[in-house]
Amino acid sequence: MNSVNLYILCEGTKLDNWVDYQKVLTNSYEKKQLKNAEIDTLKRFVNELLNWGIAIEDLDGFFYGFSIPQISKEFDLLKIFENDVVVNIELKSNDIALDKIEYQLRKNRYYLSHLKKKIYSFTYVNSGENGKIYSYDGDKLLESNIEEIAQLISLKGTFIKENIESLFKAKDYLISPINTPQLFVEGNYYLTGQQEEIKNKIINGIDNREHKIWGIQGSAGTGKTLLLYDIARTLGQMMRVCVIHSGILSQGHIELNSILREVDIIPVKECNENLIRQYDCILIDESQRLYQVDFDCIVKAFQDLDIHCIFGYDYYQVLSYAEENRNIPEQLNRLSFFCENKLSEKIRTNKEVASFIKNVINLAHRPKRYMDYSNIEVLYAFDYTVAKNIIEHYVTNKQYKFISYTPSRIKSNDIDKLSNYTNTHHIIGQEFDNVIFSMDNNFKYAEDGHLQGKIHPNPDYIFYKLWFQGVSRARERLCILIIGNEPLFNNILQVKMQFSE
C-alpha cells in the first residue's frame, strides 16, 4: 500500500469514480465500502488543517484505511516518520462514548508499539462547529485541538511512503495460549470484534443463568482456542473453571497450568463425574475429538448439576473415522438447549498458505487473484535417508517445526521412519510460524484432481485428515517435502509455479 496526500485524495471526492481513484492512489485494491459520512468527515478534517494554515506538502505521507494483513486491524490515518514518530488519527462521523474512543486508541497503540517509535494518538469527531479532537497519551484520554495535530504532521523529516505492510507482521500479534503461554497470561493480545461479541454473549448468558450449553464453532485460523481460553480466564475470576483438552497435553499446556491461577487445564483422559463436580464451569477445547462416554458425562453434568458448559470445535479437524462417525458437533446441535456461535473471520491463517493448501487439495481450484507463494517451498527427496537430512537441516538451521504422521500401533509403515518427531496428535490446537511436513507414496491424485490418501496402517486414522492437521498449523511459512513420489511432486510443484508467476 502507498501513502497519499490528503489534499489530493479529498479533491478527488468530486469524481464519480472516486473509490477507484483512491484505490489507484493508495495501490490498495481490497474491497471496501465507504459511506458518504466517512468521506465528509475526512474532507472536514483536512479543511480544518488547511484553515489552520498547514501547507499542502505536509499532507503528504498518509496511509488511508490501512489494515494489518490477516488480523484485519484497520487504522483510518497513519503517518510514520523514519525517525521516531508515528501519528495515528481516527475519524468519527458522529459522537460516540469517550470510553470507546479511549479503548480504540489504546488498542491502536498496542498494534503500533512494535515500531519502537513515539506514538501520537488522536480521534477527530465530526461534531459541532469545528469538530472535536481527543488525544490519548497511553494513560488517559485528553481534549486536544487541530493545532496539536498540525504541528506533529508538519514535522520536518522523511516518512514512509510505500509498502507499509512490511512493517507489520501478523505473527507479532497473533499469540497462542498454548505456544506463547506467558504472553497470554500477561494479556498481551486483543480479541477481534467478532470474538468480543461472542465472548460477551456467552458471559452475559452465564451471568443471567440462561440454561444453555454454549458452542464456539470455527475452522482453522479463526482463533477459537484463544477465545475459549480468554473466556475461561474471565470466568475464572468469578467461579471454579476447568478447561478440558481433547488430546495430549503439550509442554505449553503444562506451562500454562503452572502460571494460570484462575483455570485448571486437564487432559480428556482424566475426565470423570467426580472431577467435573469440582467445577462450576467446564470448557472443552477440540471437542470434536471427544469419546462418546466423555461427551455424555459432560452433558449429564450440565443437566443434573447445573454446571456451565462451553464447547469449542471444528468438525473438519477430526482425525479418525470414529470421530467422524460420532460427529460430536452434530450431537450438540440436536440438543434443544444448545446455542452455537460461529467464528468466520480467519485471523490466524496466512492467506497465501491457506490458498496453497486449497489448491493442493483440489488441482482444479483456481485463485481469484494473483497469489504470492514465496513463503511456500516444495522439496523432493528420493528416499527417507535424504528426507531425514533435509528435515534436520530445516529444524536445526531454519527454525522450522517438523510434524510427523501419527503412527499405528497395529501395523508398520514408511511413516514410522520419522516417528521420533512430534506427531499430528501431539500438536492439536497448536500453531507454529514455520512448518515442514512430508508426503510420500501414501498419497496420490484422483483423476478429477482431488488429493487422496491411502488406508492408514491404523484403519481408524484418516491420512488425508492427518495431512490437513499438519499443514494447517503453519502461520507464516510452509514447506512440503515429497519423498519418493515423483508424480505427486510434479503436481504440487505445478501448483506453486502456476499461481505464483
Walk me through the structure.
The strands form four sheets. The protein has a six-stranded mixed beta sheet with strand order 1-2-3-4-5-6, sandwiched between helices. Strands 9-8-10-11-7-12 form a six-stranded parallel beta sheet, with helices on both faces. A four-stranded parallel beta sheet has the order 13-18-15-14, sandwiched between helices. A hairpin with a 4-residue loop joins strand 1 (63-68) and strand 2. It is 35% helix and 21% strand. The longest helix is centred in the N-terminal third of the chain and has 17 residues, at 36-52. Helix 7 packs parallel to helix 8. The chain is of the alpha/beta class and 501 residues long. It is built from 17 helices and 18 strands.
Structural class by sheet pairing and helices = alpha/beta
Total number of strands: 18
The CA-CA distance between the termini, in Å, is: 21 Å
Helical coverage, percent range: 25-40%
User: Rg from C-alpha positions?
Assistant: 26 Å
Largest sheet: 6 strands, mixed
Number of helices: 17
Please state the overall shape, judged from the principal axes of the Cα atoms: globular
Hey, roughly how much beta strand do the residues contain? 15-25%
Low-confidence parts lasting 5 or more residues at pLDDT below 50? none
> What average pLDDT do the residues reach?
90
Strand order of the largest sheet: 1-2-3-4-5-6
